[in-house]
Specification:
Protein Transport Mog1p, Chain A; elongated; alpha+beta; about 50% helix
């Protein structure tokens, strides 16, 4: 009997608390923000709108993460690192094969308007920084070599910069890795 009462209480609690059952969605959160605004609750609407933006940014980050494959040309990916602060986003993953490591990072602004500005700055950096100019997946890139450090900076059409870097491989191997990375698909997915 006690077990049956407990089951009924838990079921009733679930009916009154949708957060126990359903995951927050940006759509629900944005609708809640609009409803709170309509009711005159500006503080509540602002908080809910911030949560809506947070959820949208998380979804965008998850979308980007799928392009940082677990394995590329025999290199195995370590844990993916993602950060988003003050409108700037960064996703990074290190790839290892034997005693060689290649780091891949995507940096840019979280909003589309900021991405345009960031891409312009990155392009200026590519132009001023020298290095050998190449095309990777129809994107402008520069290969920069400084002693044992090799970097390939790819300017993305949708804004931001994708950087491939290593102290363990030469420029040719790093370029082969960059060409095997789904650069075009990643860039196009960010539209």
């Amino acid at each position: 009997m006690k077990k049956r009462v407990l089951v009924i209480i838990l079921a009733m609690a679930g009916m009154h608390s949708p957060l126990l059952i359903a995951k927050d969605s940006p759509q629900d959160s944005c609708k809640n923000a609009a409803a709170l605004y309509a009711d005159g609750d500006l503080d509540g609407a602002l908080e809910e709108a911030k949560w809506c933006v947070t959820l949208l940014e998380q979804m965008k980050q998850e979308n980007i993460a799928k392009f940082f494959k677990d394995s590329i040309l025999g290199y195995k990916g370590n844990e993916l690192e993602s950060q988003n602060a003050m409108g700037f986003s960064s996703t990074k993953r290190d790839y290892l094969k034997a005693d060689k490591q290649i780091s891949v990072s995507l940096s840019g602004m979280a909003s589309a308007n900021g991405m345009d500005a960031f891409a312009a700055l990155a392009q200026i950096g590519l132009t001023a920084g020298g290095g050998k100019k190449v095309r990777i997946h129809k994107r402008t890139a520069a290969i920069m070599v400084d002693d044992s450090n090799v970097q390939i900076l790819v300017t993305l059409k949708k804004g931001g910069t994708l950087v491939f870097e290593s102290n363990d491989v030469n420029a040719d191997e790093l370029q082969r890795f960059a060409e095997a990375f789904p650069v075009e698909e990643l860039d196009d997915s960010r539209g």
